[in-house]
Input
Amino acid sequence: MRAGWYTHARAPGEPGPAIILGHVDGNSQPGIFHRLKELAPGDTVDVARADGTSARFAVVRVDQVPKERFPTDAVYGDTPDPVLRLITCGGVFDRSARSYQDNVIVYAEMI
Output
């Protein structure tokens, strides 16, 4: 399983939010973002860019929010500086809906 860049968002390192999404699990195995909720403020995340360079970000906060209260403006809203948002599923798995009830969102700033 691989993480994917949301192509309608900014590229990592450009002003504005870069959005990267990944599964928490699937096929009865841990996904690429299985441990995303363990990140903490001050942790760093390096993102490989298409041009062969990388962009380094520092985690500012990690939130777990119900999907029905997804903070669209906080995640996708424009920012003057390069920022990163990492998103996966979290919380309780609803077997009838075949989906997790929450999202885990990591907010990070470029350093």
User: Anything to note?
Assistant: The mean pLDDT is 95. The helical segments are 72-76. Residues 42 and 59 are 5 Å apart (CA to CA). The beta strands are 4-5, 16-21, 25-26, 29-30, 44-48, 54-66, 82-94, 99-110.
